[in-house]
Design goal:
globular; single chain; alpha+beta
């Protein structure tokens, strides 16, 4: 992907979206902002028909992106359509499918699957400056199966609230 909104580069690796800003620099030292790897989260919101926010689940650590990276390649439907860079809205007719797909995803959140996803993600940084690689590794190390399962439980609770609220209630995912 090319530059967008003043960022040096938007990159998506194995479903994990991130933005590198602005760089990488020719000489990258730990703590140098030009080497910072920022993880783009995907917030989930429960809204009414007027777009009023009723509930929100923030995703500053990029949990949803990591969850998306664990989806089996043959899975299609609602979860695959979540845009990590934009907005994706699910209506009351789609919420049941979204919930079922996310419940199915729970079985794929294993230490082995997450380790494989992290290896694939980090391998894409092999050609970059050492500071970028260190920062990407730190970001990946912050994610665990327990934090993913915890975030998924909160996400499913928000979706259940939308389901119980009935027609004219929506789940909106807002990416970075």
């Amino acid at each position: 992907m090319g530059a967008r909104n003043g960022w040096a580069a938007d990159v998506e690796h194995n479903g994990v979206a991130e933005v590198r800003w602005p760089g990488p620099a020719p000489f990258c030292e730990a703590g140098d902002q030009s080497c910072e790897v920022l993880i783009v989260g995907i917030d989930a919101r429960l809204e009414d028909q007027h777009g009023r926010l009723l509930d929100e689940l923030s995703d500053a650590s990029g949990h949803v992106n990591w969850l998306l990276s664990l989806i089996a390649p043959d899975v299609t439907g609602c979860v695959r359509s979540i845009d990590p860079y934009g907005e994706t809205v699910f209506n009351s007719l789609q919420i049941d499918h979204l919930k079922a797909e996310l419940q199915e995803l729970r079985d794929h959140i294993t230490d082995d699957a997450l380790a494989a996803s992290k290896r694939q993600y980090l391998s894409s940084f092999d050609h970059m400056q050492p500071g970028v690689v260190r920062e990407a590794t730190r970001n990946a190390d912050r994610i665990s199966t327990s934090t993913l399962l915890e975030h998924l439980a909160k996400l499913l609770a928000l979706i259940s609230a939308a389901e119980q609220a009935g027609p004219h209630h929506y789940v909106r995912f807002v990416g970075g």
